[in-house]
Hints:
This protein is α/β, with parallel strands linked by helices.
Amino acid sequence: MLLDVKNLQAEVEETNKQILKGLNLQVNPGEVHAIMGPNGAGKSTLASVLAGREDYAVTEGSVQFDGEDLLDMDPEVRARKGLFLAFQYPVEIPGVSNKLFMQTAVNAMRAERGLPELDMFDFDEYAKAKIDLLEMRADLLERSVNVGFSGGEKKRNDIFQMALLEPKLCIMDETDSGLDIDALRLVANGVNTLKTAERSFIIVTHYQRLLDYIKPDHVHVLYNGRIVKSGGFELALELEENGYDEIIKQHQDA
Ligand code: ADP
Ligand code: MG
Ligand code: MG
């Protein structure tokens, strides 16, 4: 098993407001999981806690990633070990070129895996191969990290970074909002291209729309800090048809 989340409970660090209330999730290598649920359910919090963002405190439960205690690792270590979070609102880093930023990140990942460092020339070649694989243009590399990127460009960059870092588990928090159909397709093409027998994805999404392009193996409904229902792709279709009302009614007092 690649990811084993057991009884995860987490709160907002600043206010001690409990958001995750005993969440269980298991992901095997090569699986695509969709996490759906109404606004405020805790979907983004789950992504943030797995990535190790500081605003949240884990109060209970465990997370094993590739046989190791994930919660024990700093965010940088998690990334090096193969956990990738495509940020919902990525940070801008003025003055730092995307290329240098990614070369550093790729070399940190390679060091973790015992692979030799890539110098500038090797990295250029490596990056070009990924750009070709994704059928993308190379222009994003020369810009500052995320500065002035449009919504679509940020998505393109997320997918490109994912390809460069060759993660074991990609967590994507997609609000879908503000994403036009081209950007959705771009994300979906990226996922479908980068999917392997070992690489897994957790795709957080409020709407079913993205799943028209990415077929998940498992669909989960997150509500009130827990996964309250799991199923196959048919669950996404059912939610598209009926919305979350029935599930909310059933689990309101839980
Ligand atoms: P979702 O992504 O499912 O819409 P979130 O994980 O963003 O839900 O939020 C779940 C709940 O936790 C919401 O009520 C939200 O207001 C609250 N919350 C999340 N993050 C914070 C934070 N940093 N500070 C205060 N409240 C937060
Ligand atoms: Mg606290
Ligand atoms: Mg969210």
